[in-house]
Amino acid sequence: MKNFSIAIHGGAGTLVKGMMTPKLETQYKHDLKTALDAAYTFLEKGRTAIEAVEVAVKFLEDSPLFNAGKGSVFTATESHEMDASIMDGKTLNAGAVSLITGIKNPICLARDVMERSEHVFLAGEGAMQFAKELSYEIEKPSYFYDEFRHKQWLEIKGTDSFQLDHSTKKDSKFGTVGAVACDQEGNIAAATSTGGMTNKKWGRVGDSPMIGAGNYANNATCAISCTGSGEFFIRGVVAYDVSCLMEHRGMSLQEASDEVIQKRILSIGGDGGLIAVDAKGNIAMPFNTEGMYRACKTSNGKETIAIYK
């Protein structure tokens, strides 16, 4: 049996320690641990990396603490637009959805795109039509309503401002969620899901559903899930960049991840972080912000649940 491991994240940003209450910190760590343990149990039982990352992200989508699924932020029209993607490192198959509404677990729809359609990326009305054909239940807006999220939106409603979840403007640092895993067969996978940015307009799409930008997996190199300033992560093709450095420069997982997050993305003005795993079960979780909600667990006994540096 090979080493197996799981890593998850719940967003990166200006997580100023003084602004986090002990009660809230306990809640975050509890929800991270719940998602981590659920996914680790799947791997322990010999299930696949794809199954593990999906179950981890589902737990994070179901938590109102994170900007994905239930905790998604409000758009300029007071609605919710969610994005998600998933990728199988063994086959390089991938599925992604963007600009969807009313879907409780966008990551499940992304996996269905990968496994039950001939396509990789479905968006908007087409993605919703696909969901309805698969008999997905469409949740009412009340399911996604969160008072704190709504207050975030009201503060900038009617302006041209938008707010990344890890923005320094307020203590409003919730972000993308994601998971990467290596299973007992040495196969790896990545999954990422987000509710976007507060007060976003014009159908803005970030890096989360874009294969190669916010999410990527290839058994030959690594599986990556990103969180941060999406526009910069798209320009930097961040997830694939880590893989390229491993493939063409022979860098280790940690070296390649650090090069991209601590140098390359910063050099073009971006901030954020990523979680990464390789086919040997090694894990890297670099970020260049004050914090990143993150957790990992490996078959050789290592477990980490952390928020700050």
Please describe what this structure looks like.
- This protein is an alpha+beta fold and 309 residues long.
- The protein has one domain: Glutamine Phosphoribosylpyrophosphate, subunit 1, domain 1, CATH 3.60.20.
- The protein contains nine helices and 14 strands.
- The strands form three sheets. An eight-stranded mixed beta sheet has the order 4-3-2-8-7-1-13-14. It has a four-stranded antiparallel beta sheet with strand order 9-10-11-12. It has a two-stranded antiparallel sheet with strand order 5-6.
- β11 and β12 (283-284) form a beta hairpin.
- α2 (49-62) runs antiparallel to α3 and α8 packs across α9 (253-267).
- The protein starts with a strand and ends with a strand.
- The model is unreliable at 165-174 (pLDDT under 50).
